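Checklist before submission:
- one chain only
- standard amino acids only
- sequence pasted in full

Submission:
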Amino acid sequence: MSAPDLIRGAKRPLAVMAGALVASMFAIPVAQASSHREAPFITTSPKVDGTDFYMFRSYEPGRDAFTTVVADYQPLQNPGDGPNYYTMDQDALYEIHLAQDGHASEDITFQFRFGNRLRDITLPIGGKNVSIPLVQAGAVSGLNPANLNVVETYNIMMVRGDRRTGTRAAVTNAADGNSSFEKPADNIGDKTFGGTTGYAAYAAAHTYNVNIPGCATPGKVFVGQRKDPFALALGQVFDLINLNPLATTQTNRDYLAQKNVTSLIMELPTSCIVGTSPVIGGWTTASMRQGRLLSGNPASGYSNVPKNGGAWVQVSRLGMPLVNEVVIGLKDKDKFNSSKPSADTQFADYVTNPTFPALVQLLFPTAPAPTNFPRTDLVAAFLTGITGVNKPANVTASEMLRLNTSIAVTPRATQNSLGVLGGDSAGFPNGRRPGDDIVDVTLRVAMGALCVATGTTDTLGVGCRPSDAPAGSAALTDGVPQNATTFPNAFPYLNLPISGSP
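Returned file contents:
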């Protein structure tokens, strides 16, 4: 069935179904937030919990021929959480998937595997060499510092075609051809790294120029801890929207302001990742081995308590923000995390009729919910792309982030945090940049902003009119603004992690 057929509504269409999925997910103010603890199983495995996914044309001056993708993991990291910090799971598989030409399945996948090595630094105590209890034995700087007790490394495989059966080749360091990269330690504190400038220099040494298989132009990679880039009144939103989204002026607490995440960041030559269409789709997943056995008597060593084996089982999935957290029923949240975009029809009952706009209306009667069902405007925004913005010619409706790489970059200084709604077509939902205010955009789109934007001729192809959305012009907000100028204007684009000991 074609995308137009789906949108016309025949037999509970995937586009409508998934549109409602995104309707709900985007209808909820937190739906644009980071994805934190969104499913029962993932709460037991925070190392593989994806929090956010970003994809945008690089706006660093002189880098507009590149596309940057960011996959954030391990939510709600408190600075100073020692002595064991936020290493990645060396028995897990972290992936960034790219789909070309409107496909609902991956055409390119970047697979990240991590390894942790214990140096076992000792000190002479009373005539005996005794292992230290910390991850550092003194000041830390540069690559492979001798005082770092735990060395974390990773490698990246690029897969073309199916992520499990496609053609594989290693991403390598452009400087020396090595396929192993060192990950910087988390920001333990100012004494360890010599303050903010010291950690900045230490982290920068772990940004690599890389050779990408099949690409003539090198890209860049950085993997390490960053300040959580998202901003949201998280607690108030979950507390039945315990704020007034209609207030013209308000300032609410950013719950994530003092939290860090672990970021997998790649800058890729755009010409090397697009197909026949300039529009690419993207999402990130994490997988674990099917079997895990705990050793009752672990041998001496480091991180060898569990024994893992069997096939990979996907346990986390994130494209558009917070679909699973606020749309999928509790009994199926783990199922969604294990699913693929091509199978989104199975969640039809959860997404056909979004509930959050009605909840907003109940709590705030002056903001009536949209009346157009099915919500084809949300289908366009989040499942197929918007006509003239980021919709491929032959798209299969499915939940993922979509970016039209032919749309010109907006410099950081002039980016509009409302993205497409604010007249900045280089922003969300055409991809997602760090400075895009996803909360406010999501609230407004959920309440029908795209219906209002179409006017009487539906130039955006979203299938609704202003009369369908009485509150579609309302300036809804959670009171926690985002602004591109608070982020770096160069790769890796996210801010340094908050120090554990300022």
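Reviewer check: Residues 3-486 form one domain.
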